[in-house]
Amino acid sequence: MRSRVAMVLAVVAVLLGGGMLVPAAYARLAGDDSGGSGGGAGSVAAPEPTAPEPPTLAAGPVSVNFSGEFFGWALMDRASGEISGSKNMASTSSTESMIKAWIVSDYLRQLGDKEPPASLKRDASLAIRDSNDGAANRVFAAAGGSYRDIPPNGQPGRVLKRAITICGLTDTRRGIMPPYEGYWSFTRMSPRDAVRLGDCIGDGKAAGPKWTKWVLDEMSKVRGSVKEQQATSGGGKWGIVDGLPAEIKAQGPVSIKNGWTPLNYDGNWHVNCLAVTEKWSLAVMLRYPQSKGLSYGAKVCASVATQLVTPQPGAALKVPQQPIGKL
């Protein structure tokens, strides 16, 4: 009798224990919705949204409804050295005032740690900020350039030859259009050489350790709109810089040097845009009918820059995928 009572009590104890264990196990399977800090073994924290990468310029397709004789562009990723661009990015056009950035850099590099005369330093600034031709001519002469000392057989002069050697240019050559043979503005350069030139200025090879920051700073202070043009100088703050979003401009200075001239011998505007930042170097080179005006070329340069912005500004925040936690 006593043994039967003990057996019954044991069975009851097992049943009661099981009844208490089942809800606890169910609770573990269902998870805790009480908002407590402990959480269940299978609970998954809500993923945090991640901000997109800051925009930059990167290789990509460019489509421009261009009407003219020449349209080429190139973009260098300055971290990797890779150059992308139009199929004709190795073809050449006259540099016009874009080459002034090299002329100034070449002169200052030769000075080393010395200061230039105050008048020439002012000329160097005016040549870049206002694209002043007279000032550029004086700096060109101080750098060793001369219109009267033209090497034979179409070879480049000393100033241009140094650009080819120091910056690793492969397509650049002296302009040979009479009567302008040897003029710095008629230097023939390709878009891919133009971005190499921009990188050469940016990395310090062009102007040297003392003067690189000064040159880039002057290029970031180019002034004047398309409408502010004079006979031998003019406003050059347009083009690529107008196509960049505020998010890129806020990352640091954008150093630019444009070149532009309406030439009677072919009836075209020759327009070039060059921009350099710590991350990239971009060049756009154009020839198109004078009837379209300078603003046409400025807008084409801006359009190329805008199309290469990656990612586009205002991109939605991305929520990373979260794997389902194990039970």
Features:
single chain; 327 residues; alpha+beta; 6-stranded antiparallel beta sheet; two-stranded antiparallel ribbon; disordered C terminus
Molecular shape:
globular
Largest sheet: 6 strands, antiparallel
In terms of per-residue confidence, which ranges show pLDDT below 50 for 5 or more consecutive residues?
A: 4-40, 316-327
Find the structural class using helix and strand composition.
alpha+beta
Assign a percent range to the helix content. Answer: 25-40%
First-to-last CA distance = 47 Å
* Sequence of secondary-structure elements: HEEEEHHHHEHHHEEEEHE
Cα Rg: 33 Å
Number of helices: 9
Short overview:
The protein has 327 residues and is an alpha+beta fold.
